[in-house]
Design brief:
Helix 3 packs across helix 25, helix 5 crosses helix 6 and helix 10 runs parallel beside helix 12. The strands form three sheets. A five-stranded mixed β-sheet has the order 6-5-7-9-8, with helices on both faces. It has a two-stranded antiparallel sheet with strand order 1-2. By secondary structure, it is mainly α. The protein contains 27 helices and nine strands.
Length: 757
C-alpha cells in the first residue's frame, strides 16, 4: 500500500522494462477460476453446443449458425461467438471444454485488458486492484466457464475501449473507426446489449479529445455509420436471402434477424414482453417463470430417503419462488423486483454488487473538486468514461422487465475499474488530506463490509456464521482503526489499508470459486453456494449442496422411475396457494401456467435456450461421475430410441422431429444427424404449417415425431394434424425401461410415424 503514493509517471516508467510480478498471480487466479475443471462439463449449454456440432458439418450451417445439421432453424443469437467456438472445436476436437475455452480465455483477457486500461492513467497499483477485482467478481468466472456469449462480449467491448483510449491519446481517426467497428462486431455477438456502452464512448470522446467541435461531430458521425454498417451486415445478408435457401431465424416471428435484434433480443428485454409465440396471444416474459409449473411430477416409486431429499428441495424451491398470494418475492429467475435498489437485492447482489458501496465512495473521491466547465485531468476524463458505462447499465438492470443473472457481467468492468482507481485515490486522500475527503476510505470500507454481511446472511446455513461475522467484525475494526490513525504515516497504517482490501475481496473470491466447488450450470450460470441449481437464490436445505440443483427433463423414452426424477423441482405441496406462480392457477399443489398461455407449459431459458419447463441440471452428486452433462437439458439420449430410429430410417433427412430444442439437442450432439425442432428452441416459432409438413413427409424428409405435449405455441395445428394422421409406435419398441410413461410436465411422451404417398 505504501507504493500507492508514488507518481503515476514514475510507476509507469519503472514497469516498462519488466513484467509486473504482481500481475502474474492475478492472471493465474483468473486462469484457475475460468479454466479449472471445464473439462468436466461434457455438453455445456446443450442448445449452443448442438449448434456448434451442426456448424462443423457445412459452411452453410456455419454461416447461418444453424441449430441442426439439416439447416432447419438457427439459434436465437448472431453467429460471431459461435463461429469462434466452432473454430475451437475444429482445432481441439468437439468437446464441451473446447466450446467453453474461447469464453474462458476471453475472461482472462478481460482481466488483462482492464489492467492495461487502468494502469496507464491511474497507476500500476490501481491497475492491479482493478484486474484483481475483475477476476474475483463472482459472475465473471461463472459466465466464462460456459459457452454462453457474455464473456466474449465483454472482452470485445473492452478491446473497443482500448482502441478508443488510444484514439484519444494519438488523435488518430483510424482508431476511432476501429473502436466503433468493434462495437459493431459485438452487436453480432449479442445484438443491442453491445450498444449499452455507447453513452460512455460518445461522452468520453467529446470530453477527452482535443480537436475542434466540427471534427468531433464529423468523426463520431462517420464512426457511428461504420458501426451500424458492421452491426447489420450479417442481418442484411440473411434477411435478403430467400427463406427457402437458409434456415428459419430462430425465436423471431417473421423469420427476420432485424426483428430478432430489435424485438426479442432488444426492446422486449426492457419491457419484459419477450413473447415468442406464433399465436395471437402475446404474453409477458413473466410467463417464462410461471410456466415452470410443468416440472411438478414426482416419481411415486421413490425411496424414503429420496422422498425426504425431494421434500427438502421442494421447501427450498418454495422459499425461493413463492411469495404470499402466489407472488414472487425475488423476481423472475430471482432477479429481484424493479426499483432503485434492485442491485442490492438477493439474487443480484451476490453476483455483482460486493464492492458497490466502495465504488460509490470512489466515484465521490475521483470527482471531488471537478468543475462542470473543466479543465479535466486525464484521471477525471477516464473516470467519466467508466461512470458513463456504469450508470446506464445499472439503470437498465434496475428497471428491466426480463434478463438473467449472468447478464450482470456487463457491470463488472466499470465496477472493477472504480474499485482499482478508487482504492489508490481514496488512499491518497486519506494520507494527504485532513478534510472530509480523508474519511472516504474508512467510510467506504465500513459500508462495503456491511453490505457484504447483508449479501451473505441468507446463506448462513450453507457457509456458516464465521465468515459473515468475520467480514463484519474485521470491516468495522479496520475502518475504525483507520479513522483513528488518520494522517499517521507509518508502516502499520499501510498494512491496515492492505488488510482492509483483502477483507473486502475475501468473500467475492469465495463466491467466484463456487462454480468449481459446488458445480456450475451452463444454461443459467450464476455464482454462490447454490450455483449448480442456476437459481441464484439462497441454498437448498439439502444436506449436500451439490444436490441442491434440479435435474432437467429426462430424454425421450427414458423411465420416469430412475433416480434422476428425485432431483426434480417441486413446489411445496402444502402451500396455501398450491405453489402457484404469479398469474398461474393451482392444480393439486402443482404450479400451472396461466390459462390462455400459448406456450403450453414451456419455459424459455436464457440466451435462447429452452428446457421445456425444466430447471437446470444439478452438478452430478455421484462421486463416480467424471463428467457432468449440464446445459439445463438432461443432455442424455435414450439409446433404445436412437437404435430404433436409426434402424428404421429409410433415407429420411431427419432422424426424427420434435416440438423444440430440448429433446433435439442431445441427439444432435450425440450423433451429428439432423433432428428437427419444429418450433425452434422453445417450440413456439411459427416455422411449420400443415401444408409444409405434408410436403416434407411426401419428399421423404421426415417420418418420425416425438411429442411430449409441450412447446406447442404457434404450431398447435401441426401437432394436432400429426396426432390425427400418424401411427403410434408401441412404447415397448423404443422406451429404455419397462416404464410405460415418459415423465413430462404435460403427460406422456409419444413416438409417432407418418408416411404419405
Amino acid at each position: 500500500m505504501k507504493h500507492m503514493n508514488s507518481e503515476v509517471k514514475e510507476e509507469r516508467t519503472s514497469n516498462k522494462k519488466r513484467i509486473d510480478l504482481f500481475l502474474v498471480p492475478i492472471v493465474l487466479i483468473a486462469a484457475f477460476l475460468n479454466l479449472f475443471k471445464i473439462w468436466t462439463d461434457e455438453y455445456a449449454n446443450a442448445y449452443y453446443t448442438a449448434a456448434v456440432k451442426s456448424m462443423l458439418q457445412s459452411f452453410h450451417n456455419f454461416f447461418y449458425a444453424s441449430f441442426d445439421p439439416g439447416g432447419y432453424v438457427t439459434i436465437d443469437k448472431p453467429p460471431v461467438v459461435f463461429w469462434i467456438q466452432t473454430i475451437s472445436a475444429k482445432i481441439f476436437g468437439f468437446h464441451g471444454w473446447s466450446v467453453i475455452l474461447p469464453q474462458a480465455l476471453a475472461g482472462i483477457g478481460s482481466v488483462l485488458l482492464l489492467y492495461v486500461l487502468i494502469k496507464r492513467t491511474f497507476g500500476v497499483w490501481a491497475g492491479r486492484f482493478a484486474a484483481l477485482a475483475m477476476a474475483l467478481t463472482p459472475i465473471v468466472p461463472a459466465v466464462s466457464r460456459t459457452n454462453n456469449i457474455d464473456s466474449m462480449l465483454v472482452f470485445t467491448l473492452l478491446l473497443a475501449t482500448w482502441m478508443l483510449f488510444r484514439a484519444v491519446r494519438t488523435v488518430k481517426f483510424g482508431w476511432v473507426l476501429a473502436a466503433f467497428a468493434m462495437i459493431g462486431v459485438a452487436f453480432n455477438m449479442k445484438m443491442l446489449q453491445a450498444y449499452m456502452v455507447l453513452p460512455a464512448f460518445y461522452v468520453f470522446y467529446v470530453v477527452a479529445t482535443k480537436i475542434t467541435w466540427k471534427k468531433k461531430i464529423a468523426f463520431l458521425t462517420t464512426a457511428t455509420a461504420l458501426m451500424l454498417a458492421v452491426s447489420v451486415s450479417w442481418a442484411v445478408v440473411v434477411d435478403s436471402t430467400s427463406a427457402d435457401k437458409r434456415p428459419y431465424m430462430g425465436s423471431s416471428q417473421t423469420n427476420s434477424v432485424l426483428e430478432l435484434a430489435f424485438g426479442y433480443n432488444g426492446i422486449n428485454r426492457l419491457t419484459g414482453n419477450t413473447s415468442v409465440t406464433g399465436s395471437s396471444h402475446k404474453q409477458p416474459a413473466q410467463t417464462e417463470q410461471q410456466t415452470a409449473s410443468s416440472e411438478t411430477k414426482q416419481n411415486s416409486n421413490s425411496s424414503a430417503d429420496s422422498s425426504q431429499s425431494s421434500n427438502q428441495r421442494k421447501s427450498s424451491f418454495s422459499q425461493k419462488m413463492q411469495a404470499p398470494g402466489g407472488g414472487n418475492q425475488n423476481g423472475m429467475f430471482n432477479t429481484g423486483n424493479p426499483g432503485p435498489f434492485r442491485l442490492f437485492q438477493k439474487g443480484l447482489s451476490d453476483q455483482i454488487s460486493w464492492l458497490l458501496p466502495f465504488v460509490i465512495f470512489s466515484i465521490v473521491g475521483l470527482f471531488a473538486g471537478v468543475k462542470f466547465k473543466g479543465p479535466y485531468t486525464a484521471k477525471q476524463k477516464e473516470s467519466l468514461f467508466w461512470l458513463a458505462w456504469l450508470l446506464p447499465v445499472a439503470v437498465f438492470f434496475s428497471i428491466a422487465g426480463f434478463f438473467h443473472q449472468y447478464y450482470l457481467i456487463m457491470l463488472a468492468p466499470p465496477i472493477a475499474a472504480f474499485a482499482g482507481a478508487g482504492a489508490v485515490a481514496l488512499w491518497s486522500m486519506y494520507k494527504q488530506h485532513n478534510d472530509w475527503k480523508s474519511w472516504l476510505l474508512p467510510g467506504g470500507i465500513l459500508t462495503t463490509a456491511a453490505l457484504q454481511v447483508y449479501i451473505m446472511s441468507p446463506y448462513v446455513s450453507s457457509i456458516g456464521v464465521a465468515p459473515i461475522a468475520g467480514v463484519g467484525a474485521l470491516g468495522v475494526i479496520l475502518a475504525l482503526v483507520l479513522a483513528i490513525r488518520k494522517q499517521r504515516k507509518n508502516s502499520l497504517t499501510n498494512y491496515l489499508g492492505a488488510a482492509a482490501m483483502v477483507v473486502l475481496l475475501a468473500m467475492p473470491a469465495y463466491w467466484a470459486m463456487t462454480p468449481i466447488i459446488y458445480g456450475g450450470n451452463s444454461m443459467l450460470p450464476s455464482a454462490g453456494p447454490d450455483s449448480s441449481s442456476g437459481m441464484g437464490g439462497p441454498p437448498s436445505t439439502a444436506t449436500n449442496s451439490k444436490q441442491s440443483g434440479f435435474n432437467g427433463m429426462q430424454p425421450p423414452g427414458s423411465s420416469s422411475g430412475n433416480s434422476s426424477s428425485n432431483n426434480q423441482m417441486q413446489p411445496t405441496s402444502g402451500s396455501s396457494n398450491g405453489g402457484q406462480m404469479p398469474g398461474g392457477s393451482s392444480n393439486n399443489g402443482q404450479m400451472q401456467p396461466p390459462s390462455g398461455s400459448s406456450n403450453s407449459g414451456q419455459m424459455q431459458m436464457p440466451g435462447g435456450s429452452s428446457n421445456n419447463s425444466q430447471m437446470p441440471n444439478s452438478f452430478s452428486s455421484k462421486s463416480s461421475s467424471s463428467k457432468r452433462k449440464s446445459g439445463g437439458m438432461n443432455a442424455e439420449v435414450n439409446q433404445k430410441l436412437l437404435n430404433y430410429l436409426t434402424k428404421n430410417n429409410t433415407g429420411e433427412k431427419y432422424l426424427f422431429a420434435t416440438t423444440d430444442s430440448t429433446s433435439a439437442a442431445p441427439y444432435i450432439i450425440k450423433t451429428g444427424k439432423p433432428v428437427m425442432a419444429m418450433g425452434g428452441f422453445s417450440g413456439s416459432d411459427p416455422i411449420l404449417t400443415v401444408s409444409k409438413l405434408k410436403a416434407m413427409i411426401k419428399k421423404g424428409e421426415v417420418k418420425y415425431f416425438y411429442l411430449s405435449g409441450m412447446g406447442k405455441g404457434g404450431q398447435s395445428d401441426v401437432i394436432t394434424w400429426i396426432k390425427e394422421n400418424s401411427k403410434e409406435i408401441p412404447s415397448s419398441k423404443w422406451q429404455s425401461t419397462s416404464s410405460s410413461a415418459q415423465q413430462g410436465p404435460s403427460g406422456n411422451g409419444t413416438l409417432y410415424e407418418i408416411t404419405l404417398k
